[in-house]
Design goal:
mainly alpha, globular
Amino acid sequence: MKNSYRKPWPLILALGALALIRPIMSMLGLLERIGQPFASIIVTLIITFIWILVVVFARVRQPLVVLLFTGITYGGFAILISAILSPILTGQLQGPLTNPFAVISVLVTNAIWGLLAGLLASAWMRARQL
């Protein structure tokens, strides 16, 4: 049986792009100025909260799936940004593309992030229906 659910790709892409604020803050040195690891953790929590709020209040049909794909999308964006900016900033390619295992690690880690956010969003949506 074919799954007829069409994923909201513009939303997934937008939420994935929103998470790029974290590596951008890192590249600009803002996370270091705020203080690591506190800054990275807080920014990640804020991004996660925004992801959850958006899918809950938009009443996304499958928040788990949407946020799983959002995490993977962010991972892909982060790999791409690293591939583009590292040669510009350092003169050589650095980051996940230099190691195939790192690419897999980035994608899996961010898929898990999206999955956990999706579980929280799903629980919140179920609780709102009670």
